[in-house]
Amino acid sequence: MDWIDLRSDTVTQPTAAMRAAMHTAAVGDDVYGEDPTVNRLQQRLADDLGFEAGLFVPSGTQSNLLALLAHCERGDEYIVGMDAHTYKFEGGGAAVLGSIQPQPIVQADDGSLPLERVAAAIKPVDPHFARTRLLALENTWHGRVLPLDYLRQARAFSRTHGLGLHLDGARLFNAAIACNVPAREIAQQFDTVSICLSKGLGAPVGSVLVGSAALIGKARRWRKVCGGGWRQAGMLAAGCLHALDHHVARLADDHARAAQLADGLGKIDGLILLGQHTNMVFIDVSAEHLRALDTHLRAAGIRISIGYLPTLRLVTHLDVDDAGIERTVAAFADFFTR
Ligand SMILES: *Cc1c(COP(=O)(O)O)cnc(C)c1O
Q: What is 190-208 written as a DSSP string?
């Protein structure tokens, strides 16, 4: 079956050209800093985004964790969105491994943390309190793009309050494409940025953390401590470099297809279109229909994530083409008109 998999943009298969680039990559021992392809990837993203250094790691979770460990010490605190990935979906790693206390804040609907709420959460310098060190933002958040103006305000705010500023930019390039600005313009508002190459960019494995040489030096040490020092990782880095060369501009196609999908689903009675943001579409389907819908879609060769909530997230990516969108809309329409 020719599956259309809309569960996530992590499900992509490496293209033949990407596999060829990986196959022929020059490699060395990265713990010694000797893998030329890893070094090229790290420097490439650092240069493109305007930072001194980069660090290649296996996952976005590890990249965010290393950033938190680099910014904060035991007994420090970071301020973060209540529904942010670094707080909610990373196993509490900063607390588990760094004795770093999270201070979650309720986010606005666009994913931003209202700065007056952040200000109210900053602790006084007093032995009663954890030391507030860092503000962590996420862009895109559930596909939503944080406005550039807000990022500039957050930058000024963090300077005023002496806080570091970290971006979980798992989908930084989706945000840049949606804003029609170079990714650098977004990244430059932050002290550290974590970028996933294995989401919409389509590499099989890998994230890169960029920042100052000092912060990345600390992160490198913590990567080794966490068991993340790797050896001939250049084969993976080659896939990431290929993705940066060939899969950034095409993210616009994913956004356009998500808009097409939203347009089609919005015309179907029986489901509620909640919205479309970059490469994600959100719909509500009443709970009683979820199981039957899942079965119906699978029979039509379509995979979506069905959990226990009525809200469904459909994600477009490299392996979903126009025909896939049409087939999906048709399968939904078929289910709800039966
Ligand atoms: C996927 C994701 C991560 C973590 O990436 P993994 O590679 O799955 O660990 C972090 N933040 C956001 C917003 C993500 O979507």
A: SSEEEEESSSTT--SS-EE
Q: For residues 305-329, give the mean pLDDT.
A: 93
Q: Which helix H or strand E contains 284, and what residues bound it?
A: strand 280-285
Report the alpha-carbon distance of residue 221 to residue 33 in Å, rounded: 12
Q: pLDDT by residue (tens digit) across 193-203?
A: 999 999 999 99
Indicate the pTM of the whole model. Answer: 0.97
The one-letter amino acid at 226: C
Tell me the pLDDT tens digit for each residue of 84-121: 999 999 999 999 999 999 999 999 999 999 999 999 99
Q: How far apart are CA 148 and CA 68, in angstroms?
A: 23
Handedness of CA 102, 275, 251, 304 (dihedral sign): positive
Contact 55/216 with Cβ under 8 angstroms? yes
SS3 label, residue 297:
helix
On whether the CB atoms of residues 125 and 131 are closer than 8 A, the answer is yes
Quote the CA–CA distance of 321 and 302 in Å, as a whole number: 13
Edge-first strand order for the sheet with 311-315 is 271-277, 280-285, 311-315
DSSP state of 56: E
The helix/strand/coil state of 103 is: strand
Q: What is the DSSP letter of 272?
A: E
Q: What is the pLDDT of residue 310?
A: 77
β-strands 164-169, 131-138: how paired? parallel
Q: Phi, psi at residue 296, to the nearest 5°?
A: -60, -45
The finding on whether 166 has its CB within 6 A of some atom of ligand 1 is no
The CA-atom distances, in angstroms, between 322 and each of 1, 15, 29, 257 are 17, 18, 42, 7
Sequential DSSP letters for 238-271 = HHHHHHHHHSSTTHHHHHHHHHHHHHHHHT-TTE
Residue ID of nearest Cα to ligand 1 atom 10: 60
Alpha carbon of 198 to ligand 1 centroid (Å): 9
- Phi, psi (rounded to 5 degrees) for 334: -60, -45
Q: How many A from CA of 63 to the centre of ligand 1? A: 9
CB neighbourhood size of 253 (10 A):
17
Q: 280 alpha carbon to ligand 1 midpoint, in Å?
A: 15
